[in-house]
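seq as requested:
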Amino acid sequence: MLAVAVAARRAQLARSRTLAYSVVVALKAVADGPLRPAARRELLRDIDSLAADPSRPDLADLATRVRPAVENAPVAPAPHRTRRLLGALVRVERALLPRWMHRIVLILGSLLVGLLSLVGLAVFIALATGDPDATIIIDDRTVPHGSRPPALIIASAGETVVGLMLVVAAVALLAGRDRFALRVGRLGLSLGLAGVNVVLGYIDADLVVAVVVIEIVLLGLFHRYRGRFLETRSADDVVSD
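struct tokens:
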């Protein structure tokens, strides 16, 4: 029985020391800045347990003295629901879209949109040369041979430029020139969204809606790649703070 009592007392003393160490370490967070609500509750619970421990009156007295400082310490506001949702989306993005996968998506997306945009080159050549064998159909309407609608010329030339820039961006990504690829790709997509698609809307409104949606998604992927992997401090780190 005596051995059991001694062992129990030693266990209690060891628990008191461990609890005291935990409280002292946690007090560093009080000095560093606002506490999270959960951390403050846990620290107060440990302090109360230490204060109620009769085996170490000195540590109990210490706990009683530091409790007011913890009670009055500033507490960080609870994260907004939108911030929590954004954090969850970022974690999902990290799991499902690592860098190599993100790069592949950008390459395939840039090639797809770029090659489709290069159809504008064929349209531009047909308009410029007036080839009688070429038939251009826009929105179920045939463009008369020999005519050169200004809006169609501008749209086809602009789509050609956008397509070339996106193909160059895809090749640069394959070559590991990420920063150059992102500059060219984002510039091409911005040009398409800000100018070319406006003109294209006068020709085929249904087509321009699909093009705008695809280009916005691709531009967003370019921005996320830059923020996650190329900036000094990524947006993921900002969200997780």
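Strands lie at 137-138, 141-142.
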